[in-house]
Amino acid sequence: MQESPGVDIEKLARLSRIKLTEKEKGAFSAQVTDILGFFQKLQDVDVEGISPMAHPFEAAAPLRKDVPGTPWEPGRALRNAPASRGNQVIVPKVIEDV
Amino acid sequence: MNPESILETSAFELGRALHDRTLTSVEICSAFIQQVEAVDATVQAFLQLDPGSVLEAAAASDARWSRGKQRSPLDGLPVGIKDVIAIEGAPLTCASRILEAFTAPYASTAGNRLLEAGLIPFGRLNMDEFAMGSSTENSAFRKTTNPWNPENAPGGSSGGSAAAVAARECPWSLGSDTGGSIRQPAAFCGVVGLKPTYGRVSRFGLVAFASSLDQIGPIGRSVEDVAALLDVIDGHDPLDSTSWPDPSESASEALQLDHQPGVIGLPGEYFGDGIDPEVLASVNRVAEAYREMGYEIRPISLPHTDLAVPTYYIIATAEASSNLARYDGVRYTRRAESAANGIDLYFQSRGEGFGEEVKRRIILGSYVLSSGYYDAYYKRAQQVRTLIQADFLEAFRGVDAILTPTTPSPAFRLGEKTGDPLSMYLADIFTISVNLAGLPALSMPCGLSSAGLPIGFQLIGQPFAEGRLLQIAKDWESAHPFTARPGPVTRAS
């Protein structure tokens, strides 16, 4: 892991669910390779026995009491949806015909 | 008071004038609306401002004052809002095409607390898209300029929030800070910006970028104003599980208390190579001034400082790639028209809706979280984060606050760094450790460069000790008031 790793930009775009233009693929390949090279600095640090930190103050994160609240009117949740009908969001067909 | 005097008056003093009935909220809001109309064609800090609804809220506030029913001593003062903080019924775009038509269906807790105190949301302020950037040039909609020189960047990502306050377009504002996004633009624009301790201000209704780093905070033109606005928005919120459960002390009350000078640490790692000589000289003068005020200045070491930038960009991009997965073309306003099926809908909506920097960070985040690289990048960065926090906690055994430059240089020129993402990331070098460690920190103006651009210093405090931090900042401000004004956008009164 010492040398800067290569970048498979097609795979990363797929994982990220982002359609990239050819120009973006070229630019991002080079830039992401550069930035990952910069990240290599961490590989030399001795982290043996150090716990990973997910949040600065772990003591926080209490749960609320499990009591029912007032749900939104469906219309309020759907107001920003690009397409809806009744109480549902409309999406393009997801399942292929067999 | 004439409209131009209103613009120059601190929010705290405007509140006093409301109390004394020497000014009305309508007069105050009208003065700021006029200033936006006069200068925002140049500054371009606002993405949206609806003068009609502001004046309506102002008239309602004046009616409350007349009946003695004001909600707080600040009732009727306008507050600019970064366009990443939800106010119910107001636009919420995060300066992104993907949310261009989005209207907030509910309010952030910070926003609700403003309303409960009678404060008036004053427009939507420009920012880097989804708060990712250090110059506000990543906004999909406008290029905000620095009020001190329109050729220069206002900083970012809360560039609109800092520029609007500097340009007297609003008395104060809310920003958000994930890696320096309040403090760096505050330094570039010559205003005061505070990033509170992680957990002090609820993140509910703050559109998430990197959830373990994000924090809402105030920007103003005085320490007193920033303290007062913090007191309005902070405190425990059951809707944010990372909100700190203990009640916090009032920052404004802390400023009223008598206090002794303390010990200020100067970390050698923040005063090394690569700093603009004028910034270095300026911050050294601040240290000397504190010494003259009776503070002890003690050299300290934060040995893992040089690991902060890579650690931050691994953690922030990982969290961003996860948080931004929700923008899928299904629920949030923008959808690619040409998508043939559900999967295409994701790819095309995100490809069309996100700007370049957001795409780059999601891709980086996908990389560091992907199978085979998770331990080497993400987990390792979380471990180094522990070391970085431990450096600070160790240092705070001997000092009350840590003094550093806020930025390595005064405001850079617009366009100077846009082609080179890594050099833009390095602009955050002095601010990001604070977010990794979860600490409170503020930026104070401390002079102008020979080119007439503001220079800021940063004071970092102990967890939840904003009161002490603000006392120390106030000592500086009282002895060395920052009286310079950005010439291009303010007129002599």
Structural class of chain A: mainly alpha
- Mean pLDDT of chain A comes to 87
Question: Overall 3D geometry of chain A?
Answer: flat
* Major sheet size, sense and barrel closure of chain A: 2 strands, antiparallel
Number of helices of chain A: 3
State the order of secondary-structure elements of chain B, H for helix, E for strand.
Answer: HHHEHEHEHEHEEHHEHEHHHHEHHEEH
Give the distance, in angstroms, between the N- and C-terminal Cα atoms of chain B. Answer: 11 Å
The most extensive contact between chains is: A-B, 54 and 77 residues
Helicity level of chain A: 25-40%
Query: What is the overall silhouette of chain B?
Result: globular
Compute the separation of the termini of chain A in Å. Answer: 45 Å
Sheet having the most strands of chain B? 11 strands, mixed
Strand pairing plus helix content of chain B: what structural class? alpha/beta
Report Rg of chain B: 21 Å
Rounded Rg of chain A: 23 Å
> Spatial order of the strands in the main sheet of chain B?
1-3-2-4-6-5-10-11-9-7-8
The stretches of 5 or more residues of chain A where confidence is low (pLDDT under 50) are none
Low-confidence stretches of chain B: none
DSSP summary: helix tally of chain B: 17
Determine the mean pLDDT of chain B. 96
